[in-house]
Amino acid sequence: MPIRIHNFAGRLGWNARKYLPHLASESYLKLQFITRGKSQKKYIDYFMNSEEIPQPNVVNLETINRCNSTCEFCTANKNAEKRPYMRMEEDLYYSIIDQLRDWDYRGHLTLYGNNEPWLDTRIVEFHKYAREQLPNAFIFMSTNGLLLDIEKTKQIVPYVNQLIINNYCLDMKLHDNVKEVYDYVKAHPDEFKDVDILIQMRYLKEVLTNRAGSAPNKQATEKVVKETCLMPFTDMWIMPNGKLGICCCDNFEVTDFGDLHEMSLKDAWNSPKYQELRTKIKDGRQNYPFCKHCDFIDAGLRMDAVNDILKNNEMHGARQSMFRK
């Protein structure tokens, strides 16, 4: 099926997020920290002990730093945004994609950060170039869908493996334009057989994580979070100004792990500054000031990628052991 709707535990989950937002957030995060901790530490051990620093699993490349939604959990919503407006220079964008090509990058790529990608009028052409240069990468677009229509959907699907439409609303109903896209795709499945279109039903006023204290509706407490975090090991976070930030929680762009105007992508990812961050974070967020009160955890894409890598490593190790016997 080329299109599907995910509603995160259905009506029960929706009502929990709507009427018990902080309890729902804390319960979910506690569950994820408990169930994901072992795999996270195992992957971090693999990463830190590798002879060559592994590639990122996800490259997040934000080409414009603006959004058109009012999601209350995000500092990038149009009522809370504080960043100076910026679009990535085209020469820099093409250089980044070329460097990923030369690096033989095969992980996930998204031209998205704390923003709405359709606000960048170059977004289809940018995806086209990325697809041409990175045929083995998993390219996905994440959009709030407010600007989406059938024509835009047709334009983007040749260049992405997955189109994620986050339908932020208050009534658990699809926006009219998203419903039109849904109905069209359902009626013309052959046109979309090579792409996975996922509509996620999201509550506009949901409480998620404190995002290192930047979330408008959930400020960080003085509680120190001692669990580790995958993001410095899985994600390359590229801002429109060409700098590498720590992760999506740095919406105010205060961290700096390299300027791609001055150094290569690979050198930035492998830099001593990045390795210092990873050395501290591997033993807990309390060791890095930006992260010590942050309760963010990604239990989806990153964990899927990490588990696949760990599984493949175990299979490879088993084969090697058999050959030695």
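The record above closes out task 2.4. Task 2.5 opens with a second protein, given below.
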Amino acid sequence: MQTHSAAVANPASTLPPQAADHDGLEQPARTLATVALMLAVGMATLDTAIANTALPAIALDIHASPAASVWIINAYQLAMIATLLPFAALGEVLGYRRVFLFGISIFTVASLGCALAWSLPALVCARVLQGVSASALMSINIALVRYIYPKRMLGRGYGTNAMVVAVAFVVGPPTASVILSIGSWPWLFAANVPVGLLALAFGYRTLPKIAGAKHGFDPVVAILTAVTFGSLILGLGEAAHQAGVGRVLLELGIGCLFGILLLRRQAGHPAPMFPIDLLRRPAFALSALTGVFSFATQGLGFVSLPFYFEQVLHRSPVETGFLMTPWPVVVAITAPIAGRLSDRYSAGLLGGIGLAVLAVGMASLAWLPANPGVWDICWRMAVCGGGFGFFQSPNLKAIMSSAPASRSGGASGTIGMVRLFGQTSGAALVALLFLMFGVQGSMYSLALGAIVAATACVCSLMRLNVVNEFAQS
């Protein structure tokens, strides 16, 4: 085993995942490694927002119908969801640095493929490849933070990650609009190429080589995991888009069936791909559950608010875009602050405070006055963003610190699944409420969001009474 000083002197030296004496990278390696990681995370997040904004222009140019062009979005999201946990497991076996470098390399190539696509099938195939490579990045990025930052600064590292994701959501639509105003849609994807090469150069030079685990990688489990979660998320997404009941039940049924096969196949494995071993730990399970409820609240808000602003408050689409901005902007501001605080205070307490604020913000949106002004709406959106940002970074730290260092990949992959499952569940609930109450469903969605956020607050505060044996690892 190498000493800490040797590991820091050579950032790319090999470190066993359980190395107790490894405590992050020294400067400037830490900054360069963080830049590599954040460039990759920013690109993977930004590509979702950019593609959503540019979808009409892309569909028009490649002569695709609106219904068919939706697969430009769906292909990326489903590919990422289906492969998150397999890539997290692969990171534990091969090392997180290898998976990161693979992911950013393929993402860069896939982005070039998107830019050169000549038809809808070609673009969808390139987007699938993009989604798979984005999954490789998003599944292990939080695990890498654990080895880039020293223990005393981990909250700061997680806060930076949360800030980058929030900023990417904010700048995505305007970035797409600017690029489309001066060029054609392929430039949206071509712009990723130089950024990807820069992230690859920084990552190759500075990311630590973390030795892989001794157990192997089971491809059968990977397939079962992909089908299980791909089907479950697809079913929830179809429900959110009001697909036929039979179709939704079939997709959810397939997910449940393959889920049973998955649990049987991985029974007894020392590091199961679906991290049932981690979910048995109360601190980890409560943090994951808190995350699901909080992201469900975000889904309830982000999906219902555009309908609320346009159909209930009669705002224009341009005004709606402006009114949606305060939430992610304030998340970007508060997430790093909360991250730093989480290095000193309990994640259960910080998360509970943030989620209580989020619940108040959602309730205040649900009970807006009849003819609210811009300020009436914006301060309520800012309250929601402040609460969500104050929760997010401490919860990232809580999930990672609730797992042993050797299971950082499983914990990191769980974070991605928690976010996607929560957001998709929130969107499905919005669809259900619209079916039940028509246009008024948007207001009921916001009220339900307040209740779900309050539930998340209770889950977070429950962690104050739970012992976390890995809190300092």
